[in-house]
Design a protein that fits this description.
CATH topology of the largest domain: Spore Coat Polysaccharide Biosynthesis Protein SpsA, Chain A
Keywords: Membrane, Transmembrane, Transmembrane helix
Largest sheet: 9 strands, mixed
Distance between the termini: 29 Å
Shape: globular
CATH class of the largest domain: Alpha Beta
Pfam family, one: Glycos_transf_2
Protein name: Glycosyltransferase family 2 protein
InterPro entries: Glyco_trans_2-like, Glycosyltransf_2, Nucleotide-diphossugar_trans
Radius of gyration: 20 Å
Helix content: 40-55%
Number of domains: 2
Structural class: alpha/beta
Organism: Ramlibacter aurantiacus
Amino acid sequence: MLFSVVIPLYNKARFIETTIGSVLAQTLPPLEVIVVDDGSTDAGPALVEALSDPRVKLLRQPNGGVSAARNRGIDAARGDWVAFLDADDAWHPEFLAALARAHRTCPEAGVLGSRVRYVYENRGEPFEPWAVPEAFCEIELIDDLRRRWMKNLPLCSSSVAVRTQLLRSMQTRFVQGEAWGEDLDMWFRLSDLTGVAVVNAPYVTVRHEVPGSLTRRVREPRNPPFLLRMKRDALDGTIPARYRRSALWFVAQLQVTMAREALSENKRLEALWYLMQARRFMFTRRWLLTFGMALFMPVGVAERWQRWRVRSADDYAQEPAQ
């Protein structure tokens, strides 16, 4: 397998050498590492240029956002697969080898991925290879990614590789001009076209809460465009028939999640608004529980409960799948 690695770069000088180093240290070497500088104003691009490995290529463009950078990298890729990595994250040395194993196990899958672990580290220090228990390295072929996503996060933007031919066949790749959910939008649209094979072990380290990070928690817009598109595409038949109900269910689940976030900020009316948007699934346990919280739970309790829930979800994401 020939992997082209695409790294969008914007003001990540502190991390970029460690990130690229984790790619060059792969036991299954990549064909190339395409770093797309999206108008950085720090020393990041110069650090990339100073690297002596001929596989590392730097492309420059005016600031257009992470989607534009990823799309530019896709256009430049020469490998059979495009693997994506954010400029402040890192791979285990066996990451690409693990994806190759997933491909051998599930050759029909056009998307490959792995679980991740989160660390709170903002200095850019290299990571020593972490232990990945063999007992948790099973390969899972996911048919309905939206349903699977709500169980626990099976992959992220730094742990995905996609067949290059499949990416180039898409009329719309990463939607440009959006800063929340543009990656989820891509993975779900891809999953409507092909199976997703995931190694259920953490072969990627994601730096969490780094200022300016693509993975940093930010307040989502009230009507995330990708959710509106998903609902529209499910209702108008764009999404394949067998995934339409799960797409509508997923939209409702995220609206319930946003209702809980609003409650944690003492915004009860906004929480109720989200719940009304999700009323198609109002008789589910999660919807009813959140509705009761919106009506009766004291604000301070709701805030503490939401913080605990988010922290627990992050902690679980670091563990191998059970």
